[in-house]
Protein: histidine kinase
Amino acid sequence: MKRYGSLRWILLAAGVVAILGLTGMNVYSLYALHENTLESSRENKKLQIAEFTDKIRYRFFEKFMGLGSVDIDRLQDNYRKTGQFTSEVNNLLKKAAKDSIYKDIFFIPSGSDACQQHTPIHKYTSNQKFELTSNYPEVVCDGMGIARTQIKSLLADYQYNNKVIFDSHRSITIVLIDPSDREVLGYLTMPFNQDFLRNSYLPKILEQKFGPDEHPGLNVWLRDWTNNKIIASSSPNAKYESEQIQFVENFPDFFDYWTVEVAFTDESTLAASNASLIQNLIVLGAAMLLLLGALVFMFISAQKERALAERQSEFLANVTHELKTPLSVMQAAGENLADGRVQDQQRLKSYGNHIFSEAVRLRKMIDKLLDVAKSNAEESLIEPQPTDVGDVVQSYLERHQKFFREKGFHLDLTINDNLPKVNIDRNSLETILSNLIDNAIKYSADEKYLGIKVTAQNNQVKLCIEDHGIGIDKKSLSDIFTKFFRVEDSLTAKTKGHGLGLSIVKNLVELNSGSIDVESKPGEGSTFIITFPILSESEQKGSPNSVSMQPESKSRNKELEEHVS
Ligand code: ADP
Structure:
């Protein structure tokens, strides 16, 4: 038994550890999932930013897309003869000239000393022709200068097409090359329209792509590293704070003086992910609590069952002993009488009394066992009929008042007049009364008080049995109706009993559609309250009154009374 007890503890501990381990693992994987969701949402945003920078870069030279495949020999020829480009190239220039990104389009032929001497260069004009002008900005020469330096090192290996693009932060320069003999024809330089770029194009496109309506929870700024200034923002109201920047993306190749800086604010993904994490944790917590509760419940009920089994076997041993003892006494006394050895009147009487009282004890024991059987037999042994509880109580007490008096009990009886009838089995009520009154007497010490009250209220008849005895502690109150349960205190230990009376009472009350409750305070006493639902008015009228005592219970109670006295 002991070995199984410790095994049970080990299993319980293993169960709890398993549950805690499982919970831990689940919380961890939920957290990892939450982090992954965030990470993948951020990765996704980073991809969008990279796509965006590519798109802007493309926007700067998209107007010149066809330039790489023009017939360079014809272009060269045409330019030498007329000072103009072929119509094929002119068409591209026409479109580019209309693009607000570029301020003007200039052409500096290779070998020209235009920028050193400040001699005139070609400018594409509104009548869609190149015209010579000496009025050109510094930025044109800067752009051309950078392009010329860089193309020198590239040209030796260059063999692909007739166009290479360079950039000098404020302009874009396209170098026209003849790939066959690797010679530079000239430089097409377009200074940017800085006003348009900074005040219109960049802020607008940033807001369109990453503005609060498109991407709540994300702020994007564009920094120009040439002067280290923020030149555009996805949300005009967002305040730039460098410590909030979580991610910086460079613009590809020749726009490397621009960077996109990104701050992830309280994004919806984070909120959604947090909400789902919390939801999952709550469900997990509840499931774990349920599981833990079930485990503890199973453990407790196993303990209870074990205790019940122990009490049952104890009960069997006691019953065997209690059945055997009176039988042995009766056997011995009977033998003596049968032998005719006892002649003395006094002794004869004493032997007779012995046999009688032991027989009563035996009968009591058998009655108790029968009551248990009856209360377990469910409805089959119950014969409910309209009954006046007051009458049954009165009749029961009349038959037992001598017994109370001899025990020194003061009986305080209140029975309301005109009590309505209830549909119960009279024998059950007698058994209930006998068990509760028996207990009130058994578990009273100095103050011998027995209060019995029968009243009617709220469509119920209420029977209260009160004593001023030892009372029952709060912890045991919920167990006293359990079969074989006995409170562990000194008076109970001294009192004979098997913990069956109250379980019989509860079973019988419930079989008769009633309910039982108990109020008790240790040292002050206990009150058992039983209620039965009253019969409807028509049922009250049509029923016979059944107050008469049944012979079986009469004789049983008489014997009990005589035995105790
Ligand atoms: P038994 O009296 O045979 O032990 P019961 O089922 O009648 O069994 O009662 C169960 C336990 O409840 C008793 O052992 C006792 O400890 C407690 N008990 C019952 N009635 C009273 C009472 N009126 N006052 C104090 N304790 C009581």
